[in-house]
């Protein structure tokens, strides 16, 4: 097959490209220029998509012996990922830009361009496995390295995208991948993994949003209140908060019981942030919109192997999942058999049946255990 290997400049994508070439594929390496300001260099393990990363990817391609190009998708990335991130936070929701990038950029814009150029597939360094099921559909499963598993951020891929994807690292551990990179003479063997959101290189999401949103935010400040409505603090913008947050609340009045308080609700129009005890964060009902199915859309999923993951590298929660249609579009209702804590609208609920990824949906609403009639 003719394969495009997306090379970020890190160790995982370099080894994935090398394995694809070694498997006999005709591989071309590409680095995605996603930043509008690529002149900045990464700081430690933060950020990515810099000139340093592009150079690392080029050197890795030279060692592997494959052609290498840089594709500038910065405008598309800004529109589909960065703008979406800002809009979601301004609306009081908590998005995951990595899922949006996989959906809109790596397995849409890149794959579309690759197919248009006559390539057959896109290979990446994600830790996930692809298998062909008895029905002939391509199934995506968790990586053998559960600590590194990235199937959660790939839960937005549909069947057509999976048919044109390769994940060469799905059967390996991170330790083995680093050792292989060193054995292959790849200089990125010991390069630190990038953390946080790639376009917020210093990790200060609130500061970045404050700078970028400016007058676009629905309010520039408001009250922090407890569940009784009593004002316990103030803030400079709701976009600095997410459901379940504990740190950085700057409350002037301690809780009567002396226990920590967490963000329970965010109302961006009025600028009100409500805080309370951790137990009030418990939810066991989720409503999801804009579902993305990896294969055929299910109607109901139940059983011991059905779980939902609500954060990247988060816990799995046993669940019953029902997919229905509404006047506003498809809806996914999730009953969690074990309560989850600190779940915010905007997050992704990725649905599993055993190790197989069934699909995902964007959480639009949650219901707290105490509010549900048993």
Automatic annotation (TrEMBL):
What subcellular locations does the record give?
Answer: Cytoplasm
Q: What is this protein called?
A: tRNA-specific 2-thiouridylase MnmA
Predominant location category: cytoplasm
Chain sites annotated for binding ATP: 6-13, 32, 125
Q: Which domain of life is it from?
A: Bacteria
Q: Which GO terms describe its cellular component?
A: cytoplasm
The record lists the catalysed reaction(s) as: S-sulfanyl-L-cysteinyl-[protein] + uridine(34) in tRNA + AH2 + ATP = 2-thiouridine(34) in tRNA + L-cysteinyl-[protein] + A + AMP + diphosphate + H(+)
Tell me the function of this protein: Catalyzes the 2-thiolation of uridine at the wobble position (U34) of tRNA, leading to the formation of s(2)U34.
What molecular functions are annotated in GO for this chain?
Answer: ATP binding; tRNA binding; tRNA-uridine 2-sulfurtransferase activity
**Which residues are marked as site: Interaction with tRNA?**
126, 347
Report the residue ranges that make up the tRNA-specific 2-thiouridylase MnmA-like C-terminal domain in this protein.
284-363
Cite the PANTHER family for this sequence.
Answer: MITOCHONDRIAL TRNA-SPECIFIC 2-THIOURIDYLASE 1 (PTHR11933:SF5), TRNA 5-METHYLAMINOMETHYL-2-THIOURIDYLATE -METHYLTRANSFERASE (PTHR11933)
Family under the similarity heading? Belongs to the MnmA/TRMU family.
Please list the residue ranges annotated as the tRNA-specific 2-thiouridylase MnmA-like central domain: 213-276
* EC number(s) from the headed UniProt entry: 2.8.1.13
Record flagged with keyword tRNA-binding? yes
